Amino acid sequence: MLKLLSKLGAVVTVVLAVIAVTVALLGIAVTIPLGDHLGDKSFKALIVRSGSMEPTIPVGSLIVTLKQKDYRVGEIVTFKQKDSYVTHRIVGAFADRYWTKGDANAAPDGSPLPSPTAVGKLKWTLPYAGFAVNFARTPAGFSLLIVFPALLIIIQEILAIGRELEKEKIRKRRLEEKILDMRKVPSRFALEREMMKEKAGMRRRVSQAVSMMLVALVAGVGGTKAYFSDVETSTDNVFTAGTWVIEPQGVNHLLIHEVSYTHGDNDNWVEIYNPTSLTIDLSDYKVGDSESLGDTTEGMFEFPEETIIDPGEFMTIASHAGKYFDKYGFHPDFETKNHEASVPDMSEYTAWGTQDKFKLSIQDDEVLLLDDSDAIVDAVVWGDSLFSGCVAMSTTVANDHSIERKPKGVDTNNCANDFVDRFTPTPDFALPDTQTVVLNEFMVKPDPSEFIELYNKSAGSMDITGWKIARADGTVVTTIGTVILAAGGRHTINYNTIWGKEPIYLKDASSVIQDAFTHGALIPAPGSGTSEARIPDGAENWQEDPSETPNAANIL
């Protein structure tokens, strides 16, 4: 019976020791960042206190994250927010920001999180272990799970050491008696071996007692720190909108190049541009004005399968292909509604935005471009619209105008700097970032006194020999002979031809577009004897001039 009780006591001692050491080590793990000296490979242990990630991560779980260089949509990542942490799944990415969502939540978190706040990607989960660690970090739990087992083991070992010391005295006395009798030498060696074994056991018990004291001491220090600095938890925080510095994105991804938003839900269009050197497959890419996953007030539309965009190519998506044609004289690449049988349709992507209309607001709105994993590739924001990480172009544009990216292919996430007010719009192409000779004035009525005036806005002379006036279909209307145009000089071309609504192109001798004017964008069309002009000469946009001034300055 005594042997059974002894064995039972030994088992209890081992169990208590394992519990104390395990809880102490886990408590230390959630208090001290592991591997911070490893830079991009540091670990972090955290306790989950909310159910936002259930059933994937139960409440009370202890998780371990590993820092990565970058993170992808679909991964569970921990982010630091001031003095707390949030561990959610990434559902969208744009530039240096991530949109996150708890698996158990109906909607994504309120605002995107900047990349520098990412602590690490989820590597391991120990369900419910956090309850024990949290309890151990309270005074009662620390006493019950750490101090009490440690003290019990220490007391038990001290008593065992005392018993061994008493036994050693008796054995030593017996050994001294046996040494006197040389006939008992074999027994003497046996006793010496037994004494050495007992001494080893006593040393082991002393080391166990000291170890438990150290565990209690270290855990006590970590626990005390936890009482007053309990920040290592992953919670379901609601983040407020903030302002983050986002690096310019250069030209390594698709861009929204131009947007026309001044005609309601049946006359909007968006132009995207491929500034990269790669042909990009647009299958499962989307474009629309729905700003977050699950939006029920705006729409998102998906490109047809096997759609590709070549390097340097522009592609336009219109809400109504017929109205687009009436204005510009050619069809868009896609439309969001089936208005024209000859134009491919985009499909509604209701997982992101449930509205079936591509209706842009004049006062405030945004257009997003999503990739095949729903990560945000680019965004354009105007008016009073707020979109974290992207500064809006605060001034809205007049009717029939568009906003266009200038310089082409540059993205700083500041639409006020990246976009200009463009009239007339330039769908399916872009004007040079720096223009020299431009279309400056033209009159289309009455025949036969129509003219087009060119103006050299550069500081030096320009050779425009071989330059052309052309239609949208490439037809050359006239080719300029030998002309050297001085700085500030004008050159007028008289013609008698019928212009439709298509753009008028000015092309250089290599047939590169240097300027254009979209005749069909003039609503209403200019009356007889009225010209359209850049005022003053060479200005960014056009306006109606009540008195034509060929070969003279444009002045209202």
Structure description:
This protein has 556 residues and is of the alpha+beta class. It folds into four domains: 15-134, Umud Fragment, subunit A (Ribbon); 138-229; 255-422, Lamin Tail domain (Immunoglobulin-like), CATH 2.60.40.1260; 437-545, Immunoglobulin-like (Sandwich), CATH 2.60.40. It is 24% helix and 26% strand. The chain is built from six helices and 32 strands. The chain has an eight-stranded mixed sheet. Helix 5 (321-328) links the parallel strand 15 (314-318) and strand 16 (334-335). Helix 1 packs across helix 3 (139-179). It starts with a helix and ends in an 11-residue tail after the last strand.
From the alpha carbons, calculate the radius of gyration and give it in angstroms: 39 Å
What is the typical, i.e. mean, pLDDT?
76
According to DSSP, the number of beta strands is: 32
The percentage of residues in β strands lies in 25-35%
Please, how many domains?
Answer: 4
| CATH classification class of the largest domain | Mainly Beta
For the sheet with most strands, the description reads: 8 strands, mixed
- Any idea of the CATH topology of the largest domain? Immunoglobulin-like
Unreliable stretches, pLDDT < 50, 5 or more residues?
A: 34-39, 182-188, 215-251
Shape: elongated
| Helical amount | 10-25%
Major beta sheet, strand line-up: 6-5-4-3-7-2-1-8
First-last Cα distance: 115 Å
Query: Structural class given helices, strands, pairing?
Result: alpha+beta
Q: Count the helices. How many?
A: 6
CATH level-4 homologous superfamily of the largest domain:
Lamin Tail domain
CATH architecture of the largest domain: Sandwich
